Inverse folding.
């Protein structure tokens, strides 16, 4: 989002002080406040996106570890089965 145009527009309208236009001044305050609120929301969204990315990465690492541990266990079982078979044949 680009808050700058609204912020600039709000600042210009707030110049209603100079022209003694109270309505224009209030509009200016509202425009600038709206721009600041949008800026705060954008910052919050960016932080949420970072948190989701981090959580997703942690879950992916945990799932990868789980899959690798299961594969290792199966390989270990297969090796033990082969050793046992060789001992019984031998």
């Amino acid at each position: 989002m680009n808050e700058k145009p609204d912020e600039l527009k709000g600042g210009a309208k707030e110049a209603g002080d100079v022209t003694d236009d109270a309505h224009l001044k209030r509009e200016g305050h509202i425009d600038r406040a709206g721009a600041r609120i949008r800026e705060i929301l954008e910052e919050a969204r960016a932080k949420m996106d970072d948190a989701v990315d981090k959580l997703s990465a942690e879950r992916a690492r945990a799932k990868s570890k789980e899959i690798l541990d299961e594969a290792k266990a199966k390989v270990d079982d297969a090796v033990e089965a082969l050793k046992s078979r060789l001992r019984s044949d031998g």
User: Anything to note?
Assistant: The two ends are 75 Å apart (CA to CA). The helical segments are 4-14, 16-19, 22-89.
